[in-house]
Amino acid sequence: YMKYAEEVGRRIAQAGMVLVCGRRKGIIEAACREEKLAGGLTIRFMPGLSHADANSYVDCRFYRFRVCNA
């Protein structure tokens, strides 16, 4: 699956599109890496507040919060 993810990331960048993700490592990291290598932009919606939660290939991070009723 990693090779497919890398190909998707590369094709997204070549098409001039932006990769938006919500996961950290593994397959999405492979897609983000190839997106960056091809000159693309990656955005991640993060569930937490730590920059360490994102993989190193993410350009922009957006934090989201959950509102819970007690």
Draw up the topology in text.
Blueprint: H1 2-14, E1 18-21, H2 27-37, E2 41-46, E3 60-63
Parallel strand pairs: 1-2, 2-3
Helix pairs in contact: 1-2
Main sheet: which strands, in order across? 1-2-3
Indicate the structural class.
alpha/beta
User: How many strand units?
Assistant: 3
Hey, roughly how much beta strand do the residues contain? Answer: 15-25%
What is the helical fraction, as a range of percent?
25-40%
What do the pLDDT scores average to?
81
Shape estimate: globular
Please trace the helix and strand order, writing H or E for each element: HEHEE
Distance between the termini: 40 Å
Give the helix tally.
Answer: 2
Radius of gyration: 13 Å
Multimeric state of these chains?
Answer: single chain
List low-confidence stretches: none
Give a written overview of the molecule:
With 70 residues, the chain is an alpha/beta fold. The protein has two helices and three strands; from the N terminus they run αβαββ. It has a three-stranded parallel β-sheet. Helix 2 links the parallel strand 1 (18-21) and strand 2. The longest helix is centred in the first third of the chain and has 13 residues, at 2-14. The mean pLDDT is 81.
Short key terms for the protein model shown above:
alpha/beta, 70 residues, 2 helices
Could you give a quick summary of the protein structure above?
With 70 residues, the chain is of the alpha/beta class.
